[in-house]
Amino acid sequence: MSELQPAGEDQPVAAGAPDASFRGGTPRGMTEEDVGVRSELAQHLGRSLYPADRGAVVATLRRNHAPDRLVALAEKLPEDERYGNVQSIAESLGIGTEDHRA
């Protein structure tokens, strides 16, 4: 009886194009930093918050132990606006958002 070999052990390692840089899943209109900040906000805010005002956003970030830099960013939100999702928060903060095709 032959011994089983790990899958893919004899397969070559795929190489990227030599003159191309990997950008990941960064949508058009956003930087990698924009994607990261928006993702962190979404992670610490959850889905059940909305609609929310600045006070609710800041309180939720604090309650969910978000990094101080995210709390400080949220404290810059205008007091008189309500946010329906993390996208509207990002737009209000001037964080890049996806360019949508028409």
Can you tag this structure with a few keywords?
102 residues; mainly alpha; two-stranded antiparallel sheet; 38% helix; globular
Shape: globular
Number of helices: 4
Low-confidence stretches: none
Fraction of residues in H or I helices: 25-40%
Oligomer: single chain
Radius of gyration: 20 Å
The largest sheet has its strands arranged as: 1-2
Beta-strand share of residues: under 5%
Q: What characterizes the major β-sheet?
A: 2 strands, antiparallel
User: What's the helix-strand series?
Assistant: HEHHEH
Classify the secondary structure makeup into a structural class.
mainly alpha
Number of strands: 2
Mean of residue pLDDT values: 79
Distance between the termini: 61 Å
Q: What report would you give on this structure?
A:
The protein has 102 residues and is mostly helical. The chain is built from 4 helices and 2 strands. The protein has helices at residues 32-45, 54-63, 68-74, 86-93; strands at 52-53, 82-83. Strands 1-2 form a two-stranded antiparallel ribbon. Helix 2 runs antiparallel to helix 3. The longest helix is centred in the middle third of the chain and has 14 residues, at 32-45. The radius of gyration is 20 Å and the shape is globular. The chain starts with 31 loop residues before the first helix and ends in a 9-residue tail after the last helix. The model has no long low-confidence stretch (mean pLDDT 79).
Write the layout of secondary structure elements.
Blueprint: H1 32-45, E1 52-53, H2 54-63, H3 68-74, E2 82-83, H4 86-93
Antiparallel strand pairs: 1-2
Helix pairs in contact: 2-3
